[in-house]
Design a protein that fits this description.
Chain lengths: ~130, ~55
C-alpha cells in the first residue's frame, strides 16, 4: 500500500486495540487480521469459560493491577465481557488459573499485534496485498 | 476442560499462529514456524515435566 494511501497510525493502533486484527485489516493485511482475530478472541472466550477472572484496577495489589492492564489490552472484548457480567472468577474451579492465564496472555499478545500494526502503518514493515513477501 | 495436557495443547494452539503471523510474512514459512513453535511448546512442557518428575517426583 503506498504511504500516501496508508491509513493513519492512531486509527490503526486504536482499531487494533479495539478488535484484535482490525488494525491489520485496515492496512490491507486481511489474512493476518483473520489469524489474529481467530486466535485471540477464542483465547479470551476460553479464558472466561474456564472460570478466569476479569481483574479490576486495584492499586493495593500491584500484580492485579498488571493483570487488569493486560486484560484491558483486548479492548472491546474486555469491555463487553465486563458489561455482560462475565469474568467473576470461579476460584474453586480446577481451571481458574488457566483461565486467568488465557485472559492475560490474550491481552499481552494483542499488545504485540498492536505494535506490529503500528510498524505496518509507519511503513517499517514491507506490506503486500497478497502477503507473500518475506 | 480440566485436563492439564488438554489446556496446555489448547494454549499452544492459540499462541503459535499469532507468533507465526507476527514473525513471518510468507504464508508457507508462517505455517512451518507455527508448527515448530507448537511442537516446541508442547514438547518442551513434556520434557520439563519429566525432568521435574525424575528430580523431585
Amino acid at each position: 500500500m503506498p504511504a500516501a494511501a496508508r491509513p493513519s497510525l492512531a486509527l490503526t493502533v486504536g482499531l487494533a486495540w479495539l478488535f484484535p486484527g482490525a488494525g491489520h485489516m485496515l492496512q490491507g493485511q486481511a489474512g493476518k487480521a483473520l489469524v489474529f482475530g481467530l486466535a485471540l478472541l477464542p483465547m479470551y472466550i476460553c479464558g472466561l469459560a474456564f472460570g478466569g477472572r476479569l481483574f479490576a484496577f486495584d492499586g493495593v495489589e500491584p500484580l492485579m493491577l498488571l493483570a487488569a492492564g493486560a486484560q484491558w489490552m483486548m479492548g472491546a472484548t474486555r469491555l463487553l465481557a465486563g458489561l455482560a457480567g462475565y469474568g467473576v472468577g470461579d476460584v474453586v474451579a480446577a481451571s481458574y488459573e488457566y483461565g486467568n492465564t488465557f485472559l492475560i496472555v490474550a491481552g499481552l499478545l494483542n499488545v504485540l499485534v498492536m505494535f506490529d500494526a503500528s510498524d505496518v502503518a509507519r511503513g517499517r514493515k514491507y506490506t503486500h496485498a497478497s502477503e507473500t513477501a518475506s | 476442560m480440566t485436563s492439564h495436557l488438554g489446556l496446555m495443547i489448547l494454549f499452544a494452539a492459540f499462541v503459535s499462529p499469532v507468533f507465526a503471523a507476527l514473525h513471518r510474512d510468507d504464508w508457507a514459512a508462517a505455517k512451518r514456524f507455527a508448527a515448530r513453535l507448537f511442537a516446541a511448546l508442547v514438547g518442551g512442557a513434556f520434557v520439563l515435566s519429566w525432568v521435574l518428575y525424575l528430580a523431585f517426583g
